[in-house]
């Protein structure tokens, strides 16, 4: 396939799909309050997992990862970010060290590691695993997990470290993380135990108001807590000629419904690379360490020292948003439908953001926060327009079609206060 911006704007029939299973369990309004008032259980088992072993495993990972591994203890996890030679994100995910020579990488980065390893003489092995990943997150998450496991030391778990739990006879790992910006754990273990663990957590959580998290509202927690996501906030940097070999390997490893991305929105990039993003632009600058050589280091040294764009939240003007819906009740052309609480089709929906007549950013992850009663988005925005309180305009629509100019205010990212590192003893 010849990958062009136009081809990625036209998905095949039936492209609409959900990584997160059932759309709703109670309803999306109720479920979207769960990580503020109680907790939820959500299923991220669709993520690919790779076990990486061998004496050269860590050295190999260092070549393709912006993170420092100078300090990486057994039982610790890191948000591993992989970039191309220009410092743009190829993939990212969670890397956990389970032994001196044993690591587990969750996310698409395992495919990149496998491809890279094949070009080296490193003494390492990478095998795809079949683990479940269940998130339990929210203020009452720790109480639910204590009840279901009987663990007495769960509250000793440090942020981004794993603890072991026994749930209905199954040994599982509990990674303290919190993708909703609240206290949270990811339960991990062999897929055969998934349903037993899921059912037990749901039953134990009834006392604490647990909710099953459906697909309609799942990504709202990523929006409120500012967790940029592949194919939603950026396209993986795999479409340049020097990545042709890996692109073929990667796409052949994906099911037909899980292709890299399709594009929508008013931002009209001239090249696919216009939809790439660097770790600096996505708010991950603190993970970049220059104590080792890695692909993209030179470009990121320059960008980290003097960023051009950063990530912020945009708060969209309610009256302008309401007019998008009202246009569908008027004669003549209407604006493109604004799905609620967010687009359900798996697009990277990228809208141009202007100040005056100039393009200053690109808005992504547009979604309705029932908690805040606001339409929000993430935005990679020029530094000079990134101060919270700055007024900008988001253009809702498609190139060449009707577009609604929506007033917006720049706000911090994350928008919701980050409580992931809260003291578990007082939770």
Describe, in plain words, how this protein is organized in 3D.
Helix content is 21%, strand content 29%. With 427 residues, the protein is an alpha+beta fold. Helix 5 (109-117) packs across helix 9 and helix 6 (141-149) packs across helix 7 (194-205). The longest helix has 12 residues, at 194-205. The N and C termini lie far apart (52 Å). The mean pLDDT is 95.
β-strand percent reads: 25-35%
- Overall average residue pLDDT: 95
CATH second-level architecture: 2-Layer Sandwich
Total DSSP helices: 11
**SSE run:** HHHEEHEEEHEEHEEEHEHHEHEHEEEEEE
Highest-level CATH class: Alpha Beta
| Share of residues in helices | 10-25%
Going by CATH, what is the homologous superfamily?
Probable tRNA modification gtpase trme, domain 1
End-to-end separation: 52 Å
Shape: globular
Largest sheet: spatial strand order: 8-9-10-7-1-11
CATH topology: Gyrase A, domain 2
Radius of gyration: 21 Å
What structural category do the secondary elements indicate? alpha+beta
**Would you count the extended β strands for me?**
19
Q: Poorly predicted ranges (pLDDT <50, ≥5 residues)?
A: none
Largest sheet: 6 strands, mixed
